[in-house]
Amino acid sequence: MNRRLSKKVPRVGFVSLGCPKALVDSERVLTRLRIEGYATAASYRDADLVVVNTCGFIGSAVEESLQAIGEALAENGRVIVTGCLGAKAEVVRKAHPRVLAVTGPHALDEVMEAVHAHLPQPLEDDPFTNLVPPQGVKLTPRHYAYLKISEGCNHRCTFCIIPSLRGDLESRPIGEVMREAENLAAAGVRELLVISQDTGAYGADLRYRTGFWGGRPLRTRMTDLARALGSLGVWVRLHYVYPYPHVDEVIPLMAEGRILPYLDVPFQHSSRRILRLMKRPASGEDNLARIRAWRAVCPDITLRSTFIAGFPGETEGEFRELLDFLEEAELDRVGCFAYSPVEGAAANHLPGPVPAEVREERRGRLMQAQERISARRLRRWVGRTVRVLVDEVGEEQALARSGADAPEIDGRVYLPGAAGLKPGDWVEVRIARASAHDLWAAPPGRSRTHPGAARGAAALAARRGAALASK
Predict the structure, then answer these.
(1) CB of 82 within 8 A of CB of 51?
(2) Given phi > 0 = left and psi -120 to 50 = alpha, else beta, which region is 237?
(3) Is the predicted pLDDT of residue 87 greater than 90, yes or no?
(4) What is the Rg, in whole angstroms, of the alpha carbon atoms belonging to the chain?
(5) Rounded CA gap, 366 and 360, in Å?
(6) How far apart are alpha carbons 294 and 289 in whole angstroms?
(7) 56-83: pLDDT as tens digits
(8) pLDDT band at 284, cuts 50/70/90?
(9) Are 150 and 169 in contact (CB under 8 A)?
(10) pLDDT above 80: residue 464
(11) What is the average per-residue pLDDT within 419-447?
(12) 3-state secondary structure of 200
């Protein structure tokens, strides 16, 4: 019997908490573990040690992370902590002094050093365990993936501690980003979700230097990246885009169908005074003008945003100003958080804290108002034929998303009659009805179409060259 096959392979359990950016960090660690010959364990019981990738942005996330660490210690006993809460090692070690090691976020090398120290990698090089696909290990379904283009943030929003956890803006080289995107598309990914702390600032730290992809020059800039990604034949969705003036440049790409007509813009508020207290760019009036201009170029653009209700010093009048902004802006998708003091955030020291019950009441009022707006916006799709991407298939219906719906945060499109469908299919459907959050397609008819399988690398390269040549 082959000695290598009889040898016990070290197994690592993995718990991933937090936002999509943290999920990408988890994917990178898991990819490195796989490359080095480690196996992953499906349970605490089967793991030789456990890595917990934590979130530490707000109090509830800290609590959830500490609970997850405690559970891993109780069930396994050998735990390495990484992620945003890991940037506050003293908090982790005070709550759980038995952890083996603590590292901060996007600390791949440090995590691997800790794993090596407590669970040495296999001594023999086994080509079977070292086989890893070019796109790496992914924690998302096969048909969509997050593409992180930068780390950190140069803003100093008073409610946020991300720069202290993840540092200043650090953009990835555009050639590296495009090679990853190309590998994902060639592997069958149908949707790329572009994420960062500040997508609109991509390349600013590099002075928008020119990189290379496929031997062709390409500037390290959001518009140039979006145009190049749009040549891969997949859906491209932009998240976390500050409302900078140059964001206007990507709207024509949406109108032309190169990338999805979807923009996730965290406005946070509309009051000029509150935005100044938050140290946020732009004002409510500026944003309304920008929204009108975007819709003039791309009428079907879907706009998603997030807001904070009950920020320190917010008056009832300023909150009503925010409600008026929502009515005029008619955003398609909105999330709202009641202000939550975050340890280390400058906003904690601002005068005029809003009582917790008032913060929560305002959050509820905002979401009630937005529900009416969302229902009104979704009704415009009734009777139209749209392309959707299938996520799940059941016996009697399938769950899908239109270009207006990001996975796990937006709505769904319900498809009756799931025969012949599979996750990752693009399908043309006619919308029969709408609610405040979701759409329902009409029963299948002759108009339903199934595009072919993911295109090969050669076709992708051909489209890429044509798109760049047309710049």
Answers:
(1) yes
(2) beta
(3) no
(4) 23
(5) 10
(6) 9
(7) 877 788 899 999 999 999 999 999 999 9
(8) low
(9) yes
(10) no
(11) 89
(12) helix
197 half-sphere exposure, CB direction, 13 A CA radius: 25
Q: Comparing 270-279, 329-338, 436-445, 460-469, which segment has the lowest mean pLDDT?
A: 460-469
Token representation of residue 246: 């140059």
pLDDT band at 22; cut points 50, 70, 90: confident
Structure-token pair, residue 212: 């290379």
- The encoded tokens of residue 396 equal 């009697």
The answer to whether the beta carbons of residues 197 and 169 sit under 8 Å apart is yes
Other Cβ atoms within 10 Å of 351 Cβ, number? 7
Q: Decide: 283 and 275 in contact? Cβ < 8 Å.
A: yes
Residue 398's beta-bridge partner residues?
393, 415
> Residue written as tokens 């496929």?
214
Q: What is the mean pLDDT of the chain?
A: 88
**Cβ atoms 393, 350 nearer than 8 A:** no
Tell me which residue has tokens 């008056």: 315
Q: Give yes or no for a contact between 221 and 230, defined as CB atoms under 8 angstroms apart.
A: no
Q: What does the pLDDT read at residue 148?
A: 94
CA–CA separation, 91 and 161 (whole Å): 15
Spatial separation of the C-alpha atoms in residues 400 and 190, rounded to whole Å? 13
Query: Between residues 217 and 60, which one has the greater pLDDT?
Result: 217
Are the C-beta atoms of residues 241 and 279 closer than 8 Å to each other? no
Chain-centroid distance of CA 242 in Å reads: 15
**Complete DSSP assignment for 246-302:** GGGGGHHHHHTTSS-SEEE---B---HHHHHHHT-SS-HHHHHHHHHHHHHH-TT-E
Residue with the two structure tokens 């994420």: 195
Copy the structure tokens of residue 424. Answer: 């990752």
Q: Is the pLDDT of residue 291 over 70?
A: yes
pTM, two decimals, is 0.81
- Amino acid letter, 276: R
CA distance 92 to 48: 21
